[in-house]
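Re: the request from the purification team.
They wanted to know what the chain is likely to look like in 3D before they choose a buffer screen. I agreed to run a prediction and write the result into the notebook, where they can find it.
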Amino acid sequence: MQLNTPTLKLAYLTSSLVRKLRLLERQEMACCGLPVSQAMVLQALHKSGDSLRMKDVAEVLGVVQSTATRLVEPLVEQKCVRREQAPEDGRVVVITLTPKGRRWAEEALAGSLRWSEEVLARIPGERQAEVIGALEALVGAVDDCCSGNSEQVGCEVSTQSCDPISRGA
C-alpha cells in the first residue's frame, strides 16, 4: 500500500485527532470529577433541553440501552440527574438534569468552548470557515458510513464507530 494515498492519510490524521481530542476532553471534563462517558450524558441532556428518554440517551451516545443505564446510575446517585417513568407510558424511562447536573454540564461545555477557541485561534482567519466546513463534511461522511450499514463497513453496532484502520483501508 502506498503511504501517500488519501485513504491512508485520512486514517492516520483521524486517528491522531481522536487521540488528542480524547486527552483534551478528559482534561476539560475532569472539572467535576466525572468520567468522560458520564460527562457526555450530562452534555447530551443539556443539549437536548435537560431531558431525554433512556432510549434516546443511548442513541445519542452511540451505545446500547443497558450501557446508557449503567452510565446514568452513578449520576442519579450523585443527584446530577433524576430517573422517572414517563407519565404517558410507565414503561419509558426519562432522564432529567437536576440543577447540579446542569451546572456540571455547563462547566464541561465551557471547557470545550475554551479549547475550541484556542484551537481555532491557531488557524488563520481566512481558513477557519474552510476547516469547519471540512469537519462538517467528515462528520457527515462518518455518519453515512456507520448508520444502518455496520456489517458492510466494519462498524460496531453498539458503538456506531467506523474504524478504517481495522478494515485495512
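For the purification team: The longest strand covers residues 89-97.
Please add any questions underneath this entry.
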